[in-house]
Amino acid sequence: MEHGSLGAARVTDQMAALVASLTREVADFPEPGVQFKDLTPLFADSDGLSRVTDALAEGARGATLIAGIDARGFLLGAAVAIRLGVGVLAVRKAGKLPPPVHSQTYQLEYGTAALEIPADGVELAGRRVAIVDDVLATGGTLAATARLLSVAGAEVIGAGVVLELADLGGRRAVAPLPLTALRTI
């Protein structure tokens, strides 16, 4: 099993097994042929959530701010930020924040989407930011988040995800950003 690292993060077979054991597989969702990986049981399990938070926090050491991607990344990002004693920034889907905002558009399979962060009220220049999300698939959202934070003046030091779907090429899309994945399939 290949795992990237962010800082001193060390992904173990035990962690991967924990994530696997608490992941619900849903066939044909959101469309036929897709085997959806639902992490809701993992997040609802106190020990599972605590251990995942610890592992992601270990990988984010050195960050002065955690950026959680809309929406499950909000849950993980806040937990990791609390563990590290730093703040959390919610990276939102377009249209959810009052202006002014920094915005980054990116390609989806069929069309485009945009992510936003506040342009006022949170000083990002010089901040060391680690990005946290639940799943890395094609990498478009995570790569757009890294670009968005960089344009706003932050130093993006790496990213951490609970689950990486390796066949979809997300790691290549975010390279050379250091990436920790707690389970890679």
UniProtKB/TrEMBL annotation:
It is found in: Cytoplasm. It comes from the Bacteria. Keywords: Cytoplasm, Glycosyltransferase, Purine salvage, Transferase. It is an enzyme of class 2 (transferase). GO terms for biological process: adenine salvage; AMP salvage; purine ribonucleoside salvage. Residues 63-163 form the Phosphoribosyltransferase domain. It catalyses: AMP + diphosphate = 5-phospho-alpha-D-ribose 1-diphosphate + adenine. Its EC number is 2.4.2.7. Pfam families: Pribosyltran (PF00156). CDD domains: PRTases_typeI (cd06223). GO terms for cellular component: cytoplasm. Pathway: Purine metabolism; AMP biosynthesis via salvage pathway; AMP from adenine: step 1/1. One of its GO terms (molecular function) is adenine phosphoribosyltransferase activity. Belongs to the purine/pyrimidine phosphoribosyltransferase family. Homodimer. Catalyzes a salvage reaction resulting in the formation of AMP, that is energically less costly than de novo synthesis. This is Adenine phosphoribosyltransferase.
